[in-house]
Structures are given as C-alpha cells and as structure tokens.
Fold:
Amino acid sequence: MNTELFISRRLFFDKTNKQFLSQKIIKIALFGIALGLAVMIVSIAVVTGFKKEVRNKVIGFGSHIQVVNFDSRNSYELSPISSNQPFLHKLNSIKEIKNVQVFATKPGMIKTEEYIQGIVFKGVDNRYNWDFFQKNLIAGNLPQLNDSARVNEIIISEQVSKLLKLKLNDLAVLYFVIDNELTPRLLQLKVCGIYRTSLEEFDKLFVIGDIKQIQRLNSWKANEVSGFEIEVFNFNKTEETEQLVRNLVIDYSEENSNILRTENITRMYPQIFDWLKILDMNVWVILILMILVASFNMISGLLVLILERSSMIGVLKALGSQNWSIRKIFLYLSIFLTSRGMLWGNIIGVALILIQKTFGVIKLDPTTYYVDVVPVNFSLQHLLLLNIGSIIITTIMLVVPSYLVSKISPEKSIRFD
Structure:
C-alpha cells in the first residue's frame, strides 16, 4: 500500500480540517486556480475560434491552393490556361485534396447613375463548390449555372449593395477595360443574391458570376480559364499538399504548353495570416501568467499546510519516516487540492464557451474584427493539454517549497504541540 497516498487522502477528506486557518487560505488558492484555468480555456477557445473563422473566410474567396499561368503577375488579370490539363486525373490520388474547380477573374467596375465602385468579377462554372457563399448568403439565391448558355446573374456583397444602392433583381452595369480597345466593354447582369462575410476588403471587391461571361469578354475559348482552385481537408497540410501538386504540375507539363505555377493562400494574403500568427503570442502570455498565478497560490497554501501540520510531521519523523516520504504526502495533498480547483475551472470555462457558442452573447464590430460575434472553438484536445500541463507545472513548482519539511525538528515540533 502507498502509505503517503493513504495519509494524504485522509487529510484531504478529513472534515475536522475546517477548523484550521489553512482552509481559508486554501479556498483562496483554489479560487485562483479555478479562475486561472477558466481564463486559459476561454482564451484559447476565442483565439483559435477567431483565427479559424477569419482563415475560413479568406479561403472561401480563393481556396487553399491555386494553379495559374506562370506569366501571370500578382494581379487579378490572369493569363489564360487550358482547363484540360494532363495532371488533373492524378490530383485524385492525393488524399488531402477535397475538391478541384476552375475559375477566372477580371478586374472592372460597377457604375450606377450616382456611384462607381471598383470590383473583381470572379467567374465560376456549374461544378463550383458554393458552400461558403451559401453559408454567408443573406438575401436572394445563388446563380443557377449550366454547361450551355451564359447566365446573366451575379451575387454581390451587402457592402457593395449599400454603396451603390443596388437591390435584389436590379440590373448592375459592369465595365471592363480590354487590351487594345479604346472603349470599355460592359455587361448588364441581374443581382440574384447578396452575401455578407464581414471581411470588408474582400466584400467590397468580389462579384461572383458565370465564367462564360469572362471568357466572352476576353475572347477566350470555351476551355480557357484563369486557373484551378484546390481545396484541402486540413489547412495545416496546405504547404505539404501544394508541394505534391507542384510536383504533378511539373511532371505532366507538355512541351510548348503554358508554364504553370502554384500558389497557396498564405502567400497570396501574407498580411492577414501573419497577423493571425501574432495572436498566438497573446495566448502564450496569458497561459504563462495564469499558470504562474495558480502555482504561487498553491505554494502559499502548501507552506501554510506544512506549518500547521508540523506536529504531525514531527511524529512521522519520530516513527522513522524519511523527509522525502513526508514531502510526498504534502505533494499528493497539493495535487488533490489543485485538481479540485481545476475541476471548477473546467466547469466555468466550458460553460462560458457553450453559452457564447449557443447564444452569441458577446457581439463585435464586424468592420474592425471581421466577425459579428466572438467566435469560440471548443477542442477536447486543447482542454486535455491545458489540464495535463497545468497539473504537471504546478506540481513541479511545489517540489521546492516542500523542502521546508526537512527543516522541521521532531523534538521541537512535538514539544511545541
């Protein structure tokens, strides 16, 4: 039988402990541990939720990976490539790839009688994955694209709708500058839907419609597109998947064909993803501070416990117990007490996350934060790591203060009692 564990359990469940002064100090320490752990749980949930929400919105406009013409500069006016590439059938062998779709982009402007707004017309076909825009659609319907006739429908953002005073079913006039032509070409398209992602710099830019409209504007063939968008299952494997795609593109390049290159979303919008990485530093600062607070709370509680139990320590030493054996009793007791505080911290933290996730109690200004409500991401893995890490670090920090046991003399402590 583990004698140290047995004694620490008896001390932990002993109801007569309430008369000791240490109980009040322990309660304060447990409150600090519970509050600290709750803050850590909520902080990680909010930051990871915010990063995931913003990241998914950016990916929704451009997918994880793009394959485009090598001659294309970093602009939305992309040189055409054939949609019949020999490497396409091989992409299905890459298990991380979720979807492959064609796209085309054309910068232009929308002009009404009173206002004008620069936009990027993004053309897609009937195999396009509309999940992102369906989720963020606030009015109307998505364009009903097909393989035959051009569809004269577009969806615009709520921001563009308000700026230009365009409503559902209104006709929007889009102007495009064509190389070697003095007069801009125009398209008159019906607004069939309005979306809102709260990502302002994207909302005011993108208009989504039929890819055949761009092919006609640029005098492209039916099989010519700006490039391919590739969705992956796991964002963290985007770089790895892009390398596999790049290898396929190079291996299957035909002689005298367009040279292609790959781009991933983090390189296309580095300012956004670099900003999201900075948020991780804030989380680490909060974690370190909260763990230190919890540890020092328990250190103070442990010291008081040792001092109040000095007579018990003297008796155990008189019976032949070693210093390390007695220190283990108080370390076990500290772990029990810390676990009690962490239990309440978990209950409080998870409850706050579920309330925010269900009811969206805390609102945000979307023009500043890109989201309407504080997003939270509940992860069981994060919760387990936080609890395990907290209990380990706190216990390690309690080893040194427990050395006070060796300074207590059996003769003096028993006589004092």
